[in-house]
Task: structure prediction
Amino acid sequence: MTTTTPPPRTGSAPGAWPLLGHAWQLHSRPLEFLASLPAHGDLVRIGMGPSPAYVVCDPEAAHRMLTDSRTFDKGGPFFDKARVLFGSSLPMAGWREHRWQRRQMQPAFQPDRIERYAVVMGEEVDRMTARWRPGLRLDITEALTTLTLRIVTRSVLAAEAEDAAVAEVQRSLHTVIDGIYQRVMLPLGPLYRVPTRANRRYRQACDRLHRAIDGIIAARRAAPPGDDLVAMLLAAHDDDTGEPMSEVDVRDQLMVMIGAGFETTANSLAFALWLISQHPEVEAQLHAEVDETLAGRTATPDDLDGLAYTRRVISEVLRMYPAGWFFTRVTTADTTLAGQALPAGTALLYSAYLLQHRPDLFPDPERFDPDRWLKPSGDSLPRGAHVPFGGGNRKCIGDQFALVEMTLALATVCTRWSVHPDPGATLRVRVRGTLGPGPLAMTCQPRGKAAG
Ligand code: HEM
Result:
């Protein structure tokens, strides 16, 4: 008997509403809706308001889309609205502009730079854990958000911990990010210009954020050139036109870099601590590893080899709850994907959450099992199956930054403290611009030396 691979299938999602299409499903129960789509095909047509879009449910097709960034460029439904707010910064830039921008910024994420940022990571984790007391009950998501925001602002802006402008960036950024998410997902146009309290708060936070970053840039222009990201942006020139980046472009790049680099890692760390607290066997194995490797001290990049289990925990967290849960593309030419002809201008969506919850690729996908990652993942998984950082040349520029930060932070926290939620507490996944656990009350108890 011969078996043949079924041909790629294109389907349509059921339950479209007149005019709204599937926008309501995507807004009200996005994760369930996305996870239901592979049952309808490898490429599933959904309605986004009046216009259709395709959701890529097949990992090979996702890989092809991600790695051919010229044909599948940034764009699509939510994206165009986001571009108004984020300018043409790295995640927003079209193919041509993106190439030179990325080349200018990539050196800021080379391994030697990550080593430099790791010093900041260590200082900030020490600062956070030093404030904890036995029995302290705190919102762990908030604590980790403060941690990662301090780390990314100090690293990206190459600033000292007590810099007043950096503190202002940290203060206003939350309000700005929340406001942007709302404006992208619920485009109510002129209503956002009505001077309500919320609109005024958003506008004032934007102004304060802009002023703070502009101040940092002005100070850096006046100082001798350095070799950090701000200096790289100030020295950058467009390959074709020879033009430097404008003041506003530099500011947008820095804002977006910081914006992309704190909630993502904080939410992933918060999910990690929650999942560990719910799985005693994982907690025991993690504690054994961090105690043997660190014995209570602060983790550094030299410890990464000794933290293999911690890294598997992080991989599994990023599989179950990828902070960047969905993104869009648009075709720039007529093309074919998963056997379907797509004219230029077709909107596409991909979701790491959807791909990483396919039961055929990740059996029992709701089970938290770091040992899934014992086998080298490339051995058994198709390309495009595990994409928490995306892929191709639009892959997250901060992936190594994030992985090192999360591994060092998780290991250092866990060799000093165990954190547990209230008995009977449940996790409510919050789907916003990033996927997160929302406020999470947990109580800290000292371990090892901290307990003595
Ligand atoms: C757990 C942490 C993180 C996750 C899950 C994550 C996820 C992602 C994903 C999926 C993309 C690709 C989006 C697409 O395909 O359209 C992306 C892009 C990006 N990320 Fe991250 N990210 C994380 C942390 C960071 C950090 C720490 C930074 C900066 C310090 C950062 C900066 C960026 C930037 C600038 C882009 C745009 C890259 C480009 O278009 O060339 N991210 N991220």
User: Anything to note?
Assistant: The chain has one domain: 10-451. Residues 10-451 form a domain with the Cytochrome p450 fold (CATH 1.10.630.10).
